[in-house]
Write a structure and sequence with these properties.
single chain; about 450 residues; alpha+beta; BirA Bifunctional Protein, domain 2; Rossmann fold; 2 domains; seven-stranded mixed sheet; 15 helices; about 35% helix; binds glycyl-adenosine-5'-phosphate
Length: about 450
């Protein structure tokens, strides 16, 4: 059995309709990718799993869908306008731009640039004569901070007061709705607000496919609590994240924690969960203890009280926030790498198979008439019945072995074959993707059989 390299994964995603280059017919746009029919389905099954795990399964959890465009003062209050930047420098020789922290960590994988100040990074680069990854010379400008937010203008005049921003994180949409949710849901602390949605960052570094893009989707989850309960909740969500990833089928040996040394401007403690991608360990989630920083700042900037009135002690206070955030695009990529293999079969044959958990598979069942002329009508009938219950496809082209292989390659857990027995005895053959074992099932029991085996 063989796993896939990054280049092979990009080719696979393009071949089978998972992910295409963004604006491909125009030659593309760097670090943008479009999800095809299967990729967008996979995104949705992962979103459903997140909703189940975080909104449905956890008590006092509420989902919101806030706008991407927010009042620009939100970003002043949150600290993003002043502090959300990358340390960049230019190579004076070949004029390419680089992130100082990346240059250091790629030069020495044991160096931790996230613990260094701007001056320390510059001294390190100069002392070690770190070469430019493009031209190999070591002649860089000083480091400057570049804000990562995308700005745009609203209205018709090009006045700076019309500048608004595409949100760089979902979290603020949850914070500004803290009082609305608490009031309308009559929520008592601790309670959580989650949101799935797009975020945008003007990233200049190469992306590793969909790992680092300028437009991406986050599944963020904010738990509001009383100060003093924050540290145990922080530990709880670190664990819960690891459990969630295993529920999605990521194996424990491909996951690890990475505690942050240098903290974002809002955080008291921060820890990522990283996945073992072919290019190295990469962050797929973060747990942050954001203290009362965000709500305090929004209270200061709006003059509106964001305090919680404790119904038992009658105390008034600003809650602490434990954030648990997931990058959806990175999760899609991790799930693909975890499950996509080339497997050896008998007689030197091989097959590509995506061994994804059935509940995450974009297509649940593939309906196949054995012989088109004889079995197509009955197969269409069974296909129509199944589409009322689950995502199904119908495939009548080519020999049956090739049709099985295509279903295997895209991760479809079951194939249902319609043959003479279906016409005579009303039974079908169900083939399971991973074991390739086949069982005969009465058509009347097919839906229940598939549903029971879809976990
Ligand atoms: N609200 C906190 C926050 O945004 P973050 O660690 O900057 O924290 C959260 O981002 C998650 O979003 C990351 O764990 C990662 O999975 C994903 N993410 C961040 N930047 C990304 C990018 N440029 N492309 C794709 N995913 C990204």
């Amino acid at each position: 059995m063989r796993t896939f390299t990054m280049d092979e994964m990009i080719a696979y995603c393009n071949q089978y309709g998972y992910i295409f280059q963004g604006s491909e017919i125009y030659g593309g746009l760097a670090n943008t990718w479009d999800y095809g029919p299967l990729g967008s389905r996979l995104k949705n099954t992962i979103k459903d799993a997140w909703r189940y795990y975080f909104i449905q399964r956890r008590k006092n959890s509420y989902e919101v869908d806030a706008d991407i465009l927010m009042n620009p003062m939100v970003w002043k209050a949150s600290g993003h306008l002043d502090g959300f930047s990358d340390p960049l420098l230019d190579c004076k020789e070949c004029k390419t731009r680089h992130r100082a922290d990346n240059l250091i960590e790629e030069f020495d994988e044991n160096a931790h640039a996230d613990g260094m100040s701007q001056n320390e990074m510059l001294s390190y680069i100069r002392e070690h004569q770190i070469p430019c990854p493009v031209c190999g010379k070591s002649n860089f400008t000083d480091i400057r901070q570049f804000n990562l937010m995308f700005a745009t203008k609203r209205g018709v005049t090009e006045d700076s007061s019309n500048t608004i921003y595409l949100r760089p994180e979902n979290a603020q949409g949850e914070y500004v709705n803290f009082v609305n949710v608490q009031r309308t849901m009559r929520a008592k602390l601790p309670f959580s607000i989650g949101q799935i949605g797009k975020a945008f960052r003007n990233e200049i570094t190469p992306g590793n496919f969909t790992f680092r893009t300028i437009e991406f989707e986050q599944m963020e989850y904010q738990t509001f609590c009383k100060k003093g309960e924050d540290e145990s909740l922080y530990e709880y969500f670190k664990e819960y994240g690891l459990e969630f990833f295993q529920y999605l089928g990521l194996s424990k040996e491909h996951l690890r924690y990475h505690d942050h040394e240098k903290l974002a401007h809002y955080a008291k403690a921060a820890c990522d969960i990283e996945y073992a991608f072919p290019f190295g360990w990469g962050e797929i989630n973060g747990t942050h203890n954001r203290t009362d920083f965000d709500l305090t700042r929004h209270q200061q900037y709006t003059g509106k009280t964001l305090e919680y009135m404790d119904p038992i002690s009658n105390e008034r206070y600003i809650p602490y926030i434990i954030e648990s955030t997931y990058g959806l695009d990175r999760l899609v990529l991790a799930v693909l790498f975890e499950n996509l293999v080339e497997e050896d079969l008998e007689e030197g044959d091989t097959r590509v198979v995506l061994k994804i958990k059935p509940f995450l598979a974009p297509i649940k069942v593939n309906v196949l008439p054995l012989i088109k002329k004889r079995h197509a009508d009955k197969a269409e009938e069974i296909y129509t019945m199944l589409t009322g219950v689950m995502m199904a496809t119908y495939d009548e082209a080519g020999n049956i072995g090739k049709r099985y292989r295509r279903g295997d390659a895209i991760g479809t857990p079951f194939a249902v074959t319609i043959d003479d027995d279906t016409l005579e005895k009303n039974t079908v053959t169900v083939r399971e993707r991973d074991s390739m074992k086949q069982v005969t099932i009465p058509v009347d029991e097919l839906v229940v059989y598939l549903q029971e085996n879809m976990r």
